[in-house]
Amino acid sequence: QKEVEQNSGPLSVPEGAIASLNCTYSDRGSQSFFWYRQYSGKSPELIMFIYSNGDKEDGRFTAQLNKASQYVSLLIRDSQPSDSATYLCAVGSNYQLIWGAGTKLIIKP
Amino acid sequence: DTAVSQTPKYLVTQMGNDKSIKCEQNLGHDTMYWYKQDSKKFLKIMFSYNNKELIINETVPNRFSPKSPDKAHLNLHINSLELGDSAVYFCASSQGQGAIGNTIYFGEGSWLTVV
Questions:
Q1: Vertex B71: Cα angle to B57 and B11 (nearest 5)
Q2: Taking 80 as the threshold, does the pLDDT of residue A24 lie above it?
Q3: What pLDDT score was predicted for residue B42?
Q4: Second label for B106, Cα 20 to 30 Å away, from A18, A45, B74, B88?
Q5: Counting one residue from A and one from B, how many pairs have CB atoms under 8 Å apart?
Q6: What residue in B sits closest to A44 (Cα-Cα)?
Q7: What tens digit of pLDDT does each residue of A66-81 get?
Q8: Is the pLDDT of residue A97 over 90?
Q9: Separation in Å, CA of B108 to nearest CA in chain A
Q10: What is the pLDDT of residue B1?
Q11: Cis status, amide bond into A14, omega within 30 of 0
Q12: Nearest to B40 among A32, A49, A101 (CB)
């Protein structure tokens, strides 16, 4: 069975520091990787997607993909209290998108 | 304008009742989904439609029946509600049906509580 695993947290990070969120997946054939953010009581919203090995940067966010080791990570630089949310990793292959359970991130002022 | 809108947002109902959740997207997308998110925050796909055709039907009780009158609408009808059906149900859409290059846009969710 295809799985996507994330540490449920909570991960507590001081304001201004780098938050590092990790996700591992079981299907070696996976081709697309997404990070969604979900505030409490709200719907998930896309932060970033990555398809190729390496790093992809967008503002304070960097996604890192390592297909050989089957993990994808999300780095948040200069963390802000508004970054406090649950971060969901989703991994796709063909027509199937598998979701992790999410990591709860708390940014402490 | 809300891109993916679903109603009602909150629904409290008794066991055994039948209820429907409606969803509409104005993004011009071809694919629509119903997801269920339980108390542990697992997001699980229930159904997916592409241009009104059912393409994904995960292991979901027969009490759940989706209906897509056109590609902009995907409704969910639930018969004989059970306590375990209590969850947040998200409608979503994407341009295509593959996992490559298709961002999924979610509605605001419908909080269903069965008592």
A1: 65
A2: yes
A3: 83
A4: A18
A5: 50
A6: B106
A7: 999 999 999 999 999 9
A8: no
A9: 5
A10: 61
A11: no
A12: A101
Q: What are the b/e assignments for B82-97, b being 16+ CB within 10 Å?
A: eeebbbbbbbbbbeeb
Q: What is the DSSP letter of A39?
A: -
Token couple for A16: 């201004």
pLDDT tens readout for residues B31-51? 999 999 988 778 899 999 988
23-52 of A, contacting B, C-beta below 8 A? 31-32, 34, 38, 42-46, 49, 51
Residue of A nearest to B107 (CA): A43
Compare CB distances from B43 to A49, A93, A99 and report the shortest one's residue: A99
On the CB side of B106, how many CA atoms lie within 13 Å of its CA? 21
Q: A53 touching B, CB under 8 A?
A: no
Q: Do the Cβ atoms of B89 and B115 come closer than 8 Å?
A: no
Q: What residue has token string 């029946």?
A: B65
pLDDT in tens, B65-113: 999 999 999 999 999 999 999 999 999 999 877 666 678 999 999 999 9
The torsion angles phi and psi of B12, rounded to 5 degrees, stand at -115, 125
pLDDT exceeds 80 at position A96:
no
Contact yes or no for A60/A78 (Cβ under 8 A): yes
